[in-house]
Amino acid sequence: MPSDLKIAPSILSADFSRLGAEVEAVDNAGCDYIHIDVMDGHFVPNLTFGPPVIQCIRPCTKKIFDVHLMIDPAQPHLQSYADAGADIITVHVEADAHLDRSLQMIREMGKKAGVSLNPSTPETAIKNVIDKVDLILVMSVNPGFGGQSFIESQLEKIRRIRAMIGDHSIDLEVDGGVNTKTIKAVANAGANVVVAGSAVFKGDDYVKTIGDLRAAAGT
Ligand code: DX5
Ligand code: ZN
User: Fold this and answer.
1) Hey, where are the domains in the chain?
2) What end-to-end distance do the CA atoms of the chain give, in Å?
3) In whole angstroms, what is the distance from residue 190 CA to residue 93 CA?
4) Is 187 helix (H, G, I), strand (E, B) or coil?
5) Is 167 a catalytic residue?
6) Which of 5, 30, 56, 178 sits a CA distance of 20 to 30 A from 188?
7) Closest C-alpha among 81, 17, 79 to residue 52
């Protein structure tokens, strides 16, 4: 198990009416990344926000902005997300016919490039771009909504991707249904970054909810 498990609260479960304060609160509570779920109502059946909102919350924290684009197409919008303050930009393999080019574009913008796989997508889909990614994001729910149950079949996939990564310097992030009951299995399977939306924001005390996650993971 990686000893430095990073926690990335998803602001999808935050109170949008006070988003800046929510970002500051999870920063102060000791999170590692801020996970930002961008949805377009087309690639996924839900709609969230875009670059202007990200730009608004950028001054609230110095933590890494981990921007998860659930949009199709993503390529025409990459520069907008880079300009808004993203540090990591993750695109979905299922939404991009020219994935190799998108990843190259993200790196040329000086950002970390991520690729995400839906639960039904096999890891072979990213085999040919492994040298172009800084982060692999395994969806452990079907993307679109917070608060769903973890899909157990993804644990084996996480293990296989950890083996694929080998000595490459690539973050392996898992997103969806991660809570105090599932986090240990996720970390044991080889993830070194976990997204947690409802598990962090469900309570009022984010020091406690993030602490509970770290304790449950055993890190
Ligand atoms: C789902 C999003 C996730 C989601 C996680 O489409 O990508 O980041 O917010 O929420 P929880 O942790 O509640 O499953
Ligand atoms: Zn996400």
Assistant:
1) 6-217
2) 9
3) 21
4) helix
5) no
6) 30
7) 81
User: pLDDT averaged over the chain?
Assistant: 97
Which of 36, 37, 88 best tests ligand 1's pocket when mutated (most atoms within 8 Å of CB)? 37
Angle at 192 between CA 162 and CA 1, to 5 degrees: 75
Query: Which ligand 1 atom minimizes the distance to the CA of 144?
Result: 6
Ligand in nearest proximity to the CA of 186: 1
CATH 2.10.109.10 correct for 6-217: no
Token code pair at residue 131: 């040298």
Place of tokens 């310097």: 169
Mean pLDDT of 37-41: 98
| pLDDT, tens only, 154-209 | 999 999 999 999 999 999 999 999 999 999 999 999 999 999 999 999 999 999 99
